[in-house]
From TrEMBL, chains A, B, C, D, E, F:
GO terms for biological process: polysaccharide metabolic process. It holds the Pfam family AXE1. This is Acetyl xylan esterase. The active site is at S187 (nucleophile), D273 (charge relay system), H312 (charge relay system). GO terms for molecular function: carboxylic ester hydrolase activity. Transmembrane segments: none annotated. Substrate binds at Y92. Signal peptide: none annotated. Residues 1-328 form the Acetyl xylan esterase domain.
Length: 331, 331, 331, 331, 331, 331
């Protein structure tokens, strides 16, 4: 891929046209309230995976609708103090996989909770273990259009809420310092992290890499790559519902939720990324925390790391090394 | 595509290795029994689509689990006698669309019921209107792997049952001759038609074109084309569940249900079809009604039309012309 | 495909640079005059296709050069009054196919004439039955470059003339109301419809969908998709003939002929259409009937339906439903 | 491409099932007789192309139907004796191009006549200059299906006849030794060369490289590559004409004509060739001259050069070097 | 990809035709002797990568020609006893990357040495740091054909020798139990591991996953996928050197070296792997250690794990989990 | 490909941002000085290729580092006067091939020296015969990134120097008029020709067609086609070295060296060329000789031939015909 989006100078100062729906905050506060009416139902069972240096727990908690959501918690074996915890969300189609895949943050001395993604986990990698027990109307394959006719029914209402509950679960676990929780994720994981950053007020750090689900209306104009393509396919069939569908998605646009974030952030973007085009990532970055600034007078910092020659793989291990250093400086 | 499967001489005499699960008939008879515990809840409302020659009804009936399933019924405007009815099922990803799309069988003097496909209808065409209100565990995008861990949970248990109920709905409608019901469909629609042919004892004709969902185990060996590919992707992730998954699918394999069919059939096959490879179609054809023959001494006829240079599009309008003649001869 | 052309706001007001050749009207009036020197030689034979509701006639008439051109006429069986007639032209590579494919407009109460396309009809669908008895110089495969060295020899001179003669044939048939003739078509069919709309003065309606052959010079700059690609391939070989070839095509550009149209039009465009890029469709729409306005003071109306998420398939059945309503309002 | 056809050991002894039509020899003798009823109308005009070492003539002669066919003749400038002549035919879609492209055989001391291909010459390269003034029925783009309904109307009847006439033209030119004429060509050019080898009794050498148009029925089974694909597309549309079409092509199958060849041949084949699969080339080679052997007791030699890792490009310059040596040994 | 190779039953008993060059063992013993004439020049420097649980050393040792080769050594921080060590080789185009990528085997309580690949490391991932200071003749891009004219000059002579020296370096490092060394790798890494298993007599375990470079002659027949394709491209150009090139590669074929292996092995294979076709993996497996059996009467065990629905990604984390268990059982 | 770069009007006046490294001229003058410290070691041996009209010599000379570089010299057999000589460089991946491929310029009455490309010659065509005996650090397959960390180590330092030495070799050969030397080449060959034109002061003509290696920084932004893609892949892995790598390439950018050219030039450009985008070609053209103009007051002429419908194949034989005329006018 050559460059496919605005010149980098324009990206850095890009201001997105906002399409926030009325009542966005109400929508989310009611959603979380309903969810919290269910008990968190937290369970955490020790798993032996043959790694003497790392302790692994198989975690279950109640997400949206009280549905059971799986996660892996890893931490240094034998750690006695309460540790900061990094909550991680996964890319589109993946699942939490096997526990030995997630040992780096434990090796770095932290607790690490990887949340499984409901109903996904069968597209690549080692598989997931969390159902989405909610059916849907007509939908294009994949989850992008499940329940698309109404924000209350939409898949991402459930998944983002699971993400908030994952933070609550992490805080409730033994050996975790509930005052030092970070969220992170790549692609869809980055989109969830941004959403959670806008919905949970007291995180210590946010690390979204090449986040998906930001500035969706523009994404549909500049890319036809999977998985945004699922939306385009749906709209190519249901030609009469374009505005309804886009309006639903406005409730889940990372751009809108990121404006409400309060914690410092380390973003990354890839300039040849057709999956999550750079202008959509910059849109979330450039508006990050701006409503918090209006409300409190203080805007959270938001650094951006650019990978000029990468496609959606982004910075990969280079970015991870950077996050380890950046996060250590903040804790 | 050049020829991708066995030489045509071998196809014609191909005998598939059968992998029928124990209790297949019990599984289905219990499924239908449970379904029939719900009222059929049939509704049919006249729709004005600006076609003076054709009357259109928007039909709703209770499918699997009592869930509402939509359909279009068309028939010659002003017909006074009870007409034979052709029940049609749709290809993968499609929906019942708009009513004016389905006027040919009415123009030919029949009633015609097109069943919408639950949860699909957003991949191509003009859209569907029927939800699948049942959630699922981890699944690959699409419906092939929804509920794949257990035959009772699997998507096709619901959809095939809807197909049986569509026949019951057709029979219950005014102006229909309940003793003259045929089923038909292309690709997934053909797979449903074969399943219904094995589950409903008193049809007058079955017209499956390039049917999907037949001899699935072989299909996975000889093609990687969508949508069989959904299963392969699932199994490439869930490496430990291969036999479980294939066993689930054995309950829905058109090959196994076709053996129980009783009505005369007109099949078609395309010799360059990578979506539904010809050996999988021939498998269903060559075993068609063989259990009925064992049980009753009479084997239903099963003609096959070969399209040697076609891919999955098959015979298209040529086959439709043939069906009109063949069906007229039988009614 | 993401958006590939101008932003939609610019499309709506796009004014194309015109490259009308001198003598365009003379060229066409002489062409039609020569054609009309041949007798129309109209024949129409009843065909039994097993559809009691629809009467089908196999029509032959003399097109350009007096060559025999085939068509299907369908109309409600037993209709006694003279009916309005819709003349339809076909997409690139297709043929008139089988008569049962064309029953919708009859079901809607109209006569319907589908003109076969000379020399095409073997690329998709059910086949054509009309030869193009004229040879050509060196040409790229396909018809775009046949006779490209001189407008008098070019394939589209023959085909557009056939299109005009199809209207004359429709008018001459029994049971048709010659004062109420509409033309329509998709892609190439839409291009022919626009050409005929500029060449025949007394039509009642024009319905071009995603029309091909409009603003060809721009199309060559913004797309490399088939079939415009045929021209680009020719010019990549015959590097010395660029202006000659483009000049030939100027005689057949739907943009130039549409300026002379007199009947009200209902266009459709797909914003992700790489085959017939939206700016080329808007070019024809935005100039539609402007010369008629200059000459008569009255400009025919031209509505446009936009399909923002569709590729070349455009509105499909949704647009057809719209045409049925729009046409009924006008008749 | 990995190997796509039979193992090489099987290729070397492959015997094709023959499908020669009755009356094949009559068909061709009558065709040539009709053609020779037209005067050869040979013209040859000196062209200055700025190459002091090579003399170039722009040749025109009457091919099938008396139609004018163009060719380039090149020979060493200032040669005074009568030279052997190599007649070359061109690959599918190409034209004779510019005269300076064809100087190698002149540099080697021979006369060289490159025949243009009627109606082609606009797909790649530098262009052709010969029209095909004969129209056709419905056809897939390209020439493979022009006139396919009847061998008398088929394009290759005209082109192969042009090929025979090119030999006659070469012999009639000044400075050529009419007793030493060879034919050669790559792909389609090789197919023409084989046909001419079967139709002209007194050639001195035949050099077909990766010849097209041999054992067409098998080619359709083992490849879907262009240009055999044109036939497959035609038959996928005209589903009812399979045997008619294949029968027409039997008249032009290089396999059938090669059996009648009399001159020694140097073939080449590429084992990864999907365009002209190796079994189709070996079919022509393994049957080469076998009828001549029956009739005369002497079978012409036929060497084969295998390129095991090449696709349709075959031996390219390596094969040309080989031909230069092989031909020099024979003259 | 559907199945592309032999049926699985045939794979399991597949016996490859062997093409071992004369003097294979001499070739390798002389190569290692020459290499060992250079001092090992081992250096290992502590690197701080912010992982309190894992100690990382940046290792350099002298490989083939005494050239400096880089590696990462990781082990549990603060381990005091001598640990078993796993030496890992990398896939084609990758490099040793960043040290935090390689912490799993340390987390499992072992030392782990990841050898960088000379001259590669710029195709994917996080990069390499080892030059290949040897030039080459004409070569296709990539390393497969560098020095292909003579086994002494070939790239894999250098790389396999580096692999042997990596074992020697691992044994010479502090804190390593030199009697418990395993080798492993995926794809090219698996090919190197097999070669090292045949060249180093006293390993405790060998874990090749979907190994590349095995039964190369067959691989060229059944796949055209990268990187075997590099060889095919070379041979398509250098048409005269086929046997020379294949003969060179025979010296590096994992099949030939695996016959000499002495340690127990755990293989894995993917049945839809076009990059390293399953028959080539089974060839190495089925001949594994057979010469050792001849010489010593004892054949090393060789287990095979099949992944029936995977392409070249193979078992991924599932296989890694299996290796952790299998290796723990053996140590 | 549709148009992919600036509108043609903008291309014609496009001024590139220059990124010439300091000391560019010193870099090159020192490089040539070091090279000339090696004897030219010229050898030229007569080869019999069976072409009586053309004499062929197999030439070897010392290029960069004194490494032996191969070339073919062809000239009219028996020519007695000293002839102008055309030195030709080759496209990426190709080699000098077989001598009979290069006879046109001899047929036109000139001497012609085709320089082989070190280390390439195995990607297409008939092969090369020149090694690159210099190793490299980590590199992406291909030569673009060999030695990319330092301009002194970079592959193109060696190759461009070979290009200069080829001119010196041509001048030193018998039968050549050293005062009439032209350079030419297509793609990479055009890039070398431009570099040589900037490094050798007394050429008579320069003929670069669709030159590669010009305005590389822009090329990376507007295309992802091979071979520029090699650089992009390298930078996607070595994310931390972007500026170092681009800085290295600045030393070899044809744009920078073309500014120093002194001889008249005939360029060609293809407007649909994704391999060497037209703005990069125009960049070199529009700056051609501008420093010479500053220094001497005289700017060499630079004509441009545009091929508006061609991709990277450009003008092919049409351009060659043009060069023959243009060069004849200049000599």
């Amino acid at each position: 891929m050559p460059l496919i989006d605005l010149p980098v100078e324009d990206l850095r100062r890009y201001r997105a046209p906002l399409t926030e729906p009325d009542g966005l905050e109400d929508f989310w506060s009611r959603t979380l309230e309903e969810t919290r009416a269910h008990d968190l139902a937290l369970r955490a069972e020790r798993v032996d995976v043959g790694l003497p240096l790392v302790e692994v727990l198989d975690v279950t908690f109640a997400g949206f609708g009280g549905h059971p959501i799986k996660a892996w918690l890893t931490r240094p074996a034998g750690a006695t103090e309460d540790l900061p915890v990094v909550v991680e969300y996964l890319g589109y189609g993946g699942g939490r996989g096997l526990p030995h895949e997630h040992t780096l943050w434990a090796a770095a001395g932290y607790a690490h909770l990887v949340m499984d993604t409901r109903g996904q986990g069968s597209g690549w990698g080692s598989g997931g273990a969390t159902a989405d027990p909610v059916g849907a109307g007509n939908a294009t394959p994949g989850v992008m259009t499940r329940g698309i006719e109404d924000p209350h029914d939409h898949y991402y209402r459930r998944l983002f809420t699971d993400g908030v509950r994952a933070v609550e679960a992490a805080r409730a676990l033994d050996g975790v310092d509930a005052s030092r929780v970070a969220v992170k994720g790549i692609s869809q994981g980055g989109g969830i992290a941004l959403a959670v950053a806008g919905l949970v007020p007291d995180l210590v750090a946010v690390m979204p890499d090449v986040p998906f689900l930001c500035h969706v209306r523009r994404a549909l104009d500049v890319t036809d790559a999977f998985p945004y393509q699922e939306l385009a396919v749906y709209l190519s069939v249901h030609r009469e519902r374009v505005e309804t569908v886009l309006r639903t998605f406005d409730h889940f646009d990372g751009l809108h939720l990121a404006r409400r974030a309060t914690a410092p952030a380390l973003f990354s973007v890839a300039l040849r990324d057709r999956t999550c085009p750079p202008s959509t990532v910059y849109a979330a970055h450039n508006h990050y925390g701006e409503l918090t600034a209006e409300r409190t007078g203080t805007r959270p910092t938001a650094e951006m790391v650019e990978y000029p020659f990468n496609q959606h793989e982004g910075g990969q291990q280079h970015q991870l090394a950077r996050q380890l250093r950046w996060f250590a400086d903040r804790i």
